[in-house]
Amino acid sequence: MTLTEFVIATIIKILVVLGLFSALAGFGTYLERKVLAFMQRRLGPMHVGPYGLLQVLADGIKLFTKEDIVPQNSVKPIFMIAPVIGAATAFIALAAVPLFPEFELFGVTVHPIIADINVGVLFVLGVMASGLFAPLLAGMASANKWGLLGAARTAIQLLSYEVVTGLSILAPLMLVGSLSLIDINNYQSGGFSDWIVWTQPVAFVLFLIAGFAETNRTPFDLLEHEAEIVSGYATEYSGMRWGMFFIGEYANMITLAFLASLIFLGGFNDWGFIPGGLAIVLKVSFLFFFFLWTRAAWPHIRPDQLMWLCWKVLMPIAVINVVVTGIVLMM
């Protein structure tokens, strides 16, 4: 492949990922409302289109046409760019994630990954961690005390649970001996019994719990806990700037589901008679549904309980798991 062909192929992949996952993030809001409605014996969106399917389009039109308000005493440049950081980091993280197995299209072999780098896990976690700056800067620049309180919670929660995320992934990486997500996927190519979740169940549970905190999902949705701090860091936002925060949140949920599938659940390897492409779609779909299911079934926790869980329960367990994994590998 020549340099020109490589550049064109990369640009096409970027546009496909942006378009597809923006649409999925928007459709995720519809799915969430329907799932929660079903679990609470309600109907959810029903009036806009068949079964309320056009509600996503109606919401998009509403967000794009609402007035974009910038508070008078805010730090305007930072206030305006903060939502962009949230959405951008969510999509940039997808650059190093192999989404599907290789396939041929019009005689051309397509590699469904934008940047095949040998430190893919490190890149994804680093970019997702930098998404912290979006709510942090938004709250600090808003000239609003509730926004500032939400920003403070952001820094505490996300920084704390990033430690747990890193430690939970460390043990599987010790088994594989590589930071490449493709190598991790290939390590599990032997079938269902080779999935890392069977040898690292503790790491899998820790990764999921930390994922709830890092994506700001129930029961850890304390960054803009409406019952306590109005809407936290997003209190002063309206229109599409407000919407970009939540596009980033849903995109991060999808990225996390892909990571969990690739690292622990066999990735895009064939799953019995199910081909690899369909297998990873099913795994990601179930994990996304699990996020929604948890929101319907689990109550909020207090900020002090959140920090207690992180530093006194999850992190010691993660460290012990790494140590035990190291001892087993040396034996």
UniProtKB/TrEMBL annotation:
Task: List the coiled-coil residues.
Answer: none
Q: What is its main location?
A: membrane
Q: Which PANTHER family match?
A: NADH DEHYDROGENASE SUBUNIT 1 (PTHR11432), NADH-UBIQUINONE OXIDOREDUCTASE CHAIN 1 (PTHR11432:SF3)
Quote the protein name from its UniProt record.
NADH-quinone oxidoreductase subunit H
> Where is it located?
Cell membrane; Membrane
Protein role: NDH-1 shuttles electrons from NADH, via FMN and iron-sulfur (Fe-S) centers, to quinones in the respiratory chain. The immediate electron acceptor for the enzyme in this species is believed to be ubiquinone. Couples the redox reaction to proton translocation (for every two electrons transferred, four hydrogen ions are translocated across the cytoplasmic membrane), and thus conserves the redox energy in a proton gradient. This subunit may bind ubiquinone.
Q: Which top-level enzyme class is recorded in the Swiss-Prot or TrEMBL entry?
A: translocase
Q: How does it sit in the membrane?
A: Multi-pass membrane protein
Family per similarity comment: Belongs to the complex I subunit 1 family.
**Species of origin:** Hydrogenimonas thermophila
